[in-house]
């Protein structure tokens, strides 16, 4: 590759994960991670983290430790928290590039794979979210690269010394992946990859068994020490968490095995090519990169099958499969460059895909006007610039489709994402958000509650997003227990109902109440089906009546 191409890939990666990284609202997973990180810092308890005062052992701690370190240096800074996720997104991208280049010995396929990968919207979103998924898969991709180098590099004396290094690094990265989200990436990324290797020539294992054993030991040492510590110090709690998590996998969000049949939609702009790539008998005969294609499609299908075997299913669980799927589409993009050898079906597929995406790009200015300008979030000037850019881009895509420049066409898709990430991301987050929201975060600046503890009705569930927005613990309290209520006063009550509905009249008769306000933390508008009363809460100060105090 030319240095300018490498430079452009690096710039594209940085824009993908870092431009406007605080523009999108937080979700429940981010709230849980950051709340836990805050409590690690405030309570100085790193080994046994808590979330809203309760033990938080469900998730391995590495991403939360990173978040806590950032919280220590840059408190209450969402952009800084998401920077760490962006770094891991770049790590995943780097090792995917290195792996594809090592397997294929082709720079063009590696570049095409990375361009496709960075234009999958779920990759963009997860690389901007301070949660666990991006960590475990990024580390696992590094482990897969080093393991592949260890298995398939030569066995001469010089290479054997290098193999120790590759195996050791693979063990370190596998251990870090396990410490980020347990066995998730082992199952969804590593296992289908190892199954795929069965179809390749067997690696020469002479002199490699000892370093392989060392790799396993390193993986276990790094990945399991925290669990061993917890089993030693908190065996009962760990047993309860294991039972809870295993039950969730088999009883929570249970979907039929065919639930992921629409997996190709996760590829966004590349959905048509991904569907076409599934016609295995045809491409085995016609694609120019047959070995690379068969490797990638086997890896992708293997990941999809393993995910489908799990009872619990969510679309975000498809994230690891986007790496091999990107390699599959990358194979088709490189295949399309062989203009003198292309069959009619390949030519027709390339034209249909290119023109379809071009039509969608032409329609984007209308969507921007309808959802952005009319809502007041996008200015007319920005809309005009976006319209001019989209029309120019559509022309670029059509031209490079008809003139047969697959890589320039792919660069055009990357340009669309760059434009959206720099100029439109904030508008996108606002457009689909709740314009009437009045967040409980406003209590942070209210001096009346600064020194008071926060409680909620123990009989009602509390959304963790409220704890994140309030930036303080909101502990459960039995409001029917007179002694417990009196012992807690003065305190702030966060409740879904008015105080007179939450507390028995004979208990309330001894209490003075000061209303702070009613807050709506719904991320979706009232017209959305996800809008819920669980995010509408009253905040009230409760204290003893003056005559009672005297």
Task: Provide key terms for this protein.
550 residues; five-stranded mixed sheet; two-stranded antiparallel ribbon; 23 helices; globular
Q: How do the helices and strands line up, and which of them pair or pack?
A:
Blueprint: H1 3-18, H2 28-43, E1 50-51, E2 54-55, H3 62-73, H4 78-104, H5 107-117, H6 121-126, H7 133-152, H8 157-181, H9 184-197, H10 209-233, H11 235-251, H12 271-277, H13 280-286, H14 290-309, H15 322-336, H16 344-373, H17 380-402, H18 406-431, E3 454-457, H19 464-470, E4 474-477, H20 482-488, E5 491-495, H21 499-502, H22 505-508, E6 511-520, E7 536-544, H23 546-549
Parallel strand pairs: 3-4, 3-5
Antiparallel strand pairs: 1-2, 5-7, 6-7
The main β sheet shows up as: 5 strands, mixed
| End-to-end CA span | 82 Å
As laid out across the biggest beta sheet, the strand order is 4-3-5-7-6
Beta-strand content bin:
5-15%
Structure description:
It is a single chain. The protein is of the alpha/beta class and 550 residues long. The chain contains 23 helices and 7 strands. The chain has helices at residues 3-18, 28-43, 62-73, 78-104, 107-117, 121-126, 133-152, 157-181, 184-197, 209-233, 235-251, 271-277, 280-286, 290-309, 322-336, 344-373, 380-402, 406-431, 464-470, 482-488, 499-502, 505-508, 546-549; strands spanning 50-51, 54-55, 454-457, 474-477, 491-495, 511-520, 536-544. The strands form 2 sheets. It has a 5-stranded mixed β-sheet. A two-stranded antiparallel sheet has the order 1-2. Strand 1 (50-51) and strand 2 (54-55) form a beta hairpin. Helix 14 (290-309) runs antiparallel to helix 15. The radius of gyration is 27 Å and the shape is globular. The chain starts with a helix and ends with a helix. The mean pLDDT is 91.
């Amino acid at each position: 590759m030319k240095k300018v191409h490498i430079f452009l890939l690096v710039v594209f990666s940085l824009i993908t994960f870092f431009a406007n990284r605080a523009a999108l609202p937080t979700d429940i997973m981010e709230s849980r991670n950051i709340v836990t990180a805050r409590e690690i810092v405030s309570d100085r308890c790193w080994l046994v983290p808590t979330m809203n005062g309760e033990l938080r052992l469900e998730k391995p701690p590495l991403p939360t430790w990173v978040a806590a370190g950032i919280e220590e240096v840059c408190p209450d800074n969402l952009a800084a928290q998401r920077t760490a996720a962006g770094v891991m997104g770049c790590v995943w991208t780097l090792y995917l590039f290195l792996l594809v280049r090592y397997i294929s010995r082709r720079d063009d396929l590696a570049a095409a794979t990375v361009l496709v990968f960075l234009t999958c919207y779920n990759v963009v979103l997860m690389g901007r979210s301070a949660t666990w998924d991006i960590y475990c898969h990024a580390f696992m991709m590094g482990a897969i690269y080093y393991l592949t180098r260890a298995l398939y590099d030569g066995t001469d004396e010089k290479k054997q010394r290098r193999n120790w290094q590759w195996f050791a690094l693979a063990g370190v990265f596998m251990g870090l992946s396990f410490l980020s989200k347990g066995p998730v990436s082992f199952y969804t990324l590593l296992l289908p990859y190892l199954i795929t290797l069965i179809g390749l020539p067997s690696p020469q294992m002479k002199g490699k068994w000892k370093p392989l054993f060392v790799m396993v030991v390193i993986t276990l040492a790094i990945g399991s020490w925290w669990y061993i510590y917890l089993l030693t110090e908190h065996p009962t709690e760990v047993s309860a968490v294991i039972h809870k998590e295993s039950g969730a996998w088999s009883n929570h969000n249970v979907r039929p095995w065919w639930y992921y049949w629409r997996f190709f939609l996760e590829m966004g702009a590349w959905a048509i090519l991904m569907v076409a790539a599934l016609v295995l008998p045809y491409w085995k005969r016609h694609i120019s990169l047959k070995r690379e294609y068969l490797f990638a499609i086997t890896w992708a299908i293997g990941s999809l099958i393993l995910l489908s075997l799990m009872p619990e299913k969510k679309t975000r669980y498809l994230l690891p499969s986007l790496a091999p799927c990107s390699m599959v589409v990358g194979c088709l993009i490189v295949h399309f460059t062989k203009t003198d050898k292309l069959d009619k079906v390949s030519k027709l597929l390339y034209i249909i895909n290119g023109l379809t995406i071009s039509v969608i790009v032409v329609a984007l200015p209308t969507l921007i006007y309808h959802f952005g300008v009319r809502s007041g979030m996008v200015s007319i000037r920005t809309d005009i610039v976006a319209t001019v850019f989209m029309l120019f881009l559509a022309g670029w895509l059509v031209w490079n489709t008809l003139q047969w420049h697959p890589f320039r066409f792919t660069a055009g898709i990357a340009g669309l994402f760059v434009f959206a990430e720099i100029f439109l991301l904030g508008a996108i987050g606002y457009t689909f958000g709740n314009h009437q929201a009045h967040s409980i975060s406003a209590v942070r600046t209210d001096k009346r509650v600064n020194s008071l503890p926060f409680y909620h009705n123990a009989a009602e569930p509390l959304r963790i997003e409220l704890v994140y927005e309030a930036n303080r613990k909101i502990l459960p309290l039995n409001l029917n227990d007179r002694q417990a209520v009196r012992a807690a006063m003065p305190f702030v009550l966060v409740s879904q109902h008015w105080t007179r509905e939450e507390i028995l009249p004979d208990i309330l008769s001894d209490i003075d109440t000061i209303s702070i306000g009613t807050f709506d933390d719904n991320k979706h508008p009232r017209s959305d089906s996800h809008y819920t009363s669980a995010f509408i809460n009253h905040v009230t100060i409760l204290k003893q009546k003056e005559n009672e105090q005297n």
